[in-house]
Write a structure and sequence with these properties.
Strand content: 35-45%
Largest sheet: 4 strands, antiparallel
Strand order of the largest sheet: 1-2-3-4
Shape: globular
Number of helices: 1
Structural class: mainly beta
Distance between the termini: 37 Å
Radius of gyration: 16 Å
Length: about 100
């Protein structure tokens, strides 16, 4: 299946560190917003309503985070306390259960 990609630049902002851009993309019918600083893509989010709140990119369901939370959900029901330091800390909320978000 060919990979369909349509891109448009959504926003540019200049800050102390340089220019940060967002690009909106459509990949195989799914809308995605990426945040870039220079040539580095720092992550993004799925924009379509059916994907709202789902983690993507290198913290998605098949990543280490995704597999960890799937294993925790299988092993022990109920709330738990976790701590995350560094990359990916912002996406961890997407793995919370509706009752604990």
């Amino acid at each position: 299946m060919p990979h369909r990609l349509r891109r448009r630049q959504a926003r540019d902002e200049r800050d102390f560190y340089g220019v940060v851009r967002t690009h909106d993309r459509e990949v195989n019918g799914v809308n995605y917003r990426a945040m870039l600083h220079g040539a580095i893509m720092h992550g993004g989010q799925l924009l379509d309503a059916q994907y709202r709140g789902q983690p993507a990119d290198y913290f998605g369901p098949t990543s280490g985070y995704g597999r960890l939370f799937a294993a925790l959900n299988d092993a022990k029901p109920g709330p738990r306390k976790i701590g995350v330091i560094g990359l990916g800390a912002g996406v961890v909320g997407a793995y919370g259960r509706a009752a604990t978000r």
